[in-house]
Predict the structure.
Amino acid sequence: MSFLRTVFNNSSIIHPPGFYVIGFETFSDIHIYFVFLAFVYAVTVFFNCIVIYIIVANHCLHTPKFLAVVNLAVIDLVLNSCTIPSMIKIFLLKDNFVPFNLCLLQMHVYYTCVSLESYALAILAYDRLIAICFPLRKNSINTVRSMACVVGVTWCGTLAITTFTTSIMTRLSFCSSVRVFSYFCDYAPVFRLACNDYSMQWFAASFLSILILVGPFSFILLSYLSILLTVFRMKSLDSRVKALSTCVEHLILVAIFYIPLIVIFTVGFYLGAINPDLRVLSLSLASCIPPCVNPIVYSLKTKEIKIRALALIRKNKERPPETCAAYIFVTSDMWKSVLCYRRQHTPSCCRSRAEGYHAEDVLQRSLWRSKMYFLRTVLNTSGVIHPSGFYIIGFETFSNIRFYFIFLAFVYVVTVFFNSMVIYIIANNHRLHTPKFFAVLNLAVIDVILNTCTIPGMIKVFLVKDNFIPFNLCLVQMFVYYTFGTLESYALAILAFDRLLAICFPLRHNSINTLRSMCCIVSLSWSFALGVIAYAVALMTRLSFCNSLKVFSYFCDYAPVFRLACNDYSMQWWVASMLTFMLLVGPFTFIFLSYVTILMTVFKMKSLQSRVKALSTCIEHLILVAVFYIPLIVIFTVGFYLRLIDPDQRVLSLSLASCLPPCINPIVYSLKTKEIKIKVLALIRKNYVGTDQ
């Protein structure tokens, strides 16, 4: 608690008047670099303003894709305006002092824009994913309004997160050096100057790096994997080339943004192979170049922007008399009345612009109504038809399925017994009231509820021969299953975080990973999972089921249920896709990166004995991760994408992949964790002695 008292005690906090940015002091010919930065900033402002103007001024470009491009251009403009003018000011005025409040403001704006840049690239990847993988449903899924919502959510979430991380910097005291070794008021170089404990700031920086950079990059990677699988299924070579050619500009932007950051962080920070001065220079380049290059790439590689830019140049060179050729644009038969109005009221020389604007307004309102049709279909509850229930038919085709249900009964008994034993041992032994075992207790509770949600229902189908489940009970089962499936994934990520701190930061492990901080992390994961899954399940009540009621799964599964709907389920499909990434891929990426960091730390240890000892503490967690994620990755890759597994076998394998981890987890921790093993043996001896007496 000393760390929390230090952080939250305002009476002893010392804030300096400001900081001195000294990142470029050691370079002799740095004036050449600042001239180059001035050129980069001029190009950034000019080309991004052109892209914004072209898209805003042309109604034909008011589409979801170009809304995402405008979002990226605005972010690029603000990002370079945040850093380059201040660097040039240092060179021109020889004044590298930044006031304290202005330093925090620059820090907030910079990290907000970098985060938004990463999310903007992920949004553009999402646009390409929908356009190539779902061409027939693109216009119903990816509307201007839905894209505006996605962009708005990223801005609100990023602003909130970076505001929190910047505000906790005010809890630090700076009583010694105030020289920031960077090219601006950088987060980590500033908090390392503090003379009180900055564990909370370090944790926030590490966690947010994963959330803001690694998360979007993983989504982009998976999006292009899905795009490649879809493209390779196309029969003609022309269609493959045409589909991939629409991704070229986005791939260039992703490469320019992520590759320098990955190289600098890997070679510079982890391996320490780059001189600190060169690292600052390379980081400043990696920050300033993408906002300059992005609009140029979109201007040259995007056909629509290129045509509008050339038209703008010609218009400025020569201004012909205004004609009304643009008014002969016909989209479809449904707009004939609007176009007739325009022809009747607009002469050849467009003498009355007011009438033309009125017709344009009518046309835009009609287009907006057509785009909103899909949302009205989903959100209109007046015509929703809910059945009395569904029929679960996942195991109807198996002949000897009774043996599988006997096996499931055994799995459930083992799950309840061993998880209850782990919960009892940890709860009743004060020595095990540590952050690690609190995370193990959290996993055990999740395991019991997860298998209780599905296995009794499957056994009931076998014993009573009744596969009917009422509608509301179906939604409850769906909610509980996906909530605790999500929490299982987050629980494994929390245990990876515990191992990361214990091995990579052994001296600061007790100050960072306290029981209180672990309780906060677990509570946040529960609150987030409950809220997100509640929203996803609530959307199911907006669907009408007027045809088949047979759910081809082993429980009331989300996707098999919404596919039975007779109205549009695009929103449910979109939510399912986003949540799969957020709730499974995100934690797995965090676990993978945690173990990459752990391996780097272990290989730096000198003695073989210390390496073996460090890695031996990770064995039980690695077994749990393998048992949970490997079956899911194999089933989704082989079954859903490559379609090499029969649907019946896919249902069977998914039920096994769901039921076995909660059964195996407590056994692994009982056998492999020394503390729990000792307590179990002591409990057995106590009961044995009591029986003899």
Confidence is low (pLDDT under 50) at residues 1-11, 319-382. Residues 323-371 form one domain.
